[in-house]
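Proteins fold reproducibly. Consider a sample protein:
=====
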Amino acid sequence: VQLQAFGGGLVQPGGTLRLSCTASGFTLGYYALGWFRQVPGKEREGVACISSTAISDGSTVYADSVKGRFSISRDDDENVVYLQSSSLAPEDTAAYFCVADRRAHCGGDWTNWMYDFWGQGTQVTVSS
């Protein structure tokens, strides 16, 4: 049972990137899914969360730092969650992690949850 994130890399400021996260050993449809990021020496930051569409409303929430630039989506048929990012800036440089939780709905305290599953990180570097 695991999550695996893909799609990180080096991108120029102002560029776009799409991260993917696939699950093996379980079905994502009943889980709230999210993305976190972390820079060495700094606190981990919740980036985005999307509620289950199977047993919740599929709603999304975002950190203020990425609102209007990042978009989280899910494809439950493919068992994948995505994070589409645009207008990337150097401060977006971080290791990005996908998460899943059986609470299904992204509540107001979603950034503080102890998530059921964490994926391995994928590094995003924004630099010219």
